[in-house]
Design brief:
Layout (H helix, E strand, L loop, with lengths): L15 H15 L20 E8 L5 E2 L2 E2 H14 L3 E13 L4 H18 L2 E10 L7 E11 L15 E4 L5 H9 L17 H10 L3 E6 L4 H13 L2 E6 L7 H10 L12 E5 L1 H14 L6 E8 L4 E4 L5 E4 L12
Parallel strand pairs: 4-5, 9-12
Antiparallel strand pairs: 1-6, 2-3, 4-6, 7-10, 7-11, 8-10, 9-11, 12-13
Length: about 325
């Protein structure tokens, strides 16, 4: 028999209700040998000289959306940050800040979703924390996840390795997650099949890095989208420009059409299951074929090349002009992850 149907402030006081919350809504789904030790910290043997750590907070609104939810997003987002860094994700620590009045049924759905996401990405949650705050002090639930992984053997990734003549490849169509979140907020009357691309990237990235030794750098294309990501990379290097071909940038027709109607640029919309990679020109076509044929990333595309320059991103447009891409300014779509 479960205690109450909503989160109470007393669920966060560390007493009996806190323990009941853990035992009824968390441990049945995400419990494992390490987490069930229930100590202040968990000791793990990573057996590697290169430990990779990342952390991120998830505040997406709404917390359930086509293709995902805040729980799934919090696991995959952290897994993907480790993966594009050349690491094998292993463990996750998760911290939950919940609003008084949050329905326990909703919390349970989120935790179950996290458990499935962990199984899909082959990671374990080994530490966690819960806090409860008063009504309206957060919007339902915020989740912070910290990921721990180990660097894959022989992998060497870094912006410093990008050089002129390298090719730029993206793993699939862009903009679906950001547009999905916007439409789900219910401010528009579009009937659409657009779903988030929320997905773990560790499986495909590990296979790419094992097969191709000339991959030089990778990033997942979350907040700010492709344009902001590439501008950040080019600016931080300073001595190169990226030259893109608009015709080669994959965007689903439905996403493109709605973006045109709403005045949005899909190049700046967030993605939660896409990445960009830089690779030497001589391996570019081979990795593209591998991504499409062996990994099932049918929408993968070579979108441009690296040239000597001064930290700019240019795109040759469909009508033959040239457009300079800068970082996203302002916040047209807040709380998308």
């Amino acid at each position: 028999m479960k205690t109450k149907d909503v989160i109470l402030l007393s669920h966060g006081d560390g007493g009996l209700l806190t323990h009941e919350l853990l035992e009824q809504y968390f441990l049945p789904y995400i419990g494992n040998e390490l987490l069930l030790q229930m100590d202040d910290a968990t000791a793990v043997d990573l057996k590697s000289e290169k430990i990779v750590i990342t952390t991120d907070s998830y505040v997406v609104d709404p917390i359930f959306f086509p293709g995902g939810d805040i729980g799934k997003l919090s696991v995959f987002g952290t897994v993907n940050d480790l993966s594009v860094s050349g690491a094998k994700p292993l463990y996750i620590a998760a911290s939950f800040i919940m609003e008084e009045g949050l329905e326990l049924e909703i919390l349970e759905k989120i935790v179950i979703s996290m458990s499935y996401a962990c199984k899909e990405a082959n990671v374990s949650i080994i530490a966690g924390d819960t806090k409860v705050v008063g009504r309206n002090q957060v919007d339902k639930i915020f989740i912070t996840t910290t990921g721990i992984g180990v660097r894959l053997n022989g992998v060497r990734l870094g912006k410093m390795y990008i050089e002129p003549d390298d090719s730029i490849i993206v793993s699939g169509p862009l903009g679906n997650h950001g547009l999905c979140i916007l439409l789900e907020r219910g401010n528009f009357n579009f009937r659409t099949k657009i779903v988030s691309d929320c997905a773990p990237l560790n499986g495909v990235i590990e296979r790419i890095l094992k097969e191709f030794k000339k991959v030089k750098y990778m990033r997942d294309l979350t907040r700010g989208g492709l344009a902001t990501c590439l501008k950040e990379i080019a600016s931080s290097i300073g001595s190169v420009d990226f030259l893109l071909e608009e015709a080669d940038i994959p965007i689903d027709e439905e996403v493109k059409g709605i973006c045109e109607t709403l005045g949005l640029d899909p190049l700046y919309l967030a993605n939660e299951g896409k990445f960009v990679l830089f690779i030497g020109r001589d391996e570019a076509q081979s990795v593209l074929n591998f991504m499409r044929d062996e990994l099932g990333l049918k929408g993968a595309s070579k979108i441009g090349v690296v040239r000597e320059g001064s930290g700019n991103v240019f795109m040759k447009t469909l009508i033959g002009g040239t457009r300079r891409l800068n970082m996203l300014s302002g916040t047209p779509l807040p709380r998308i992850c």
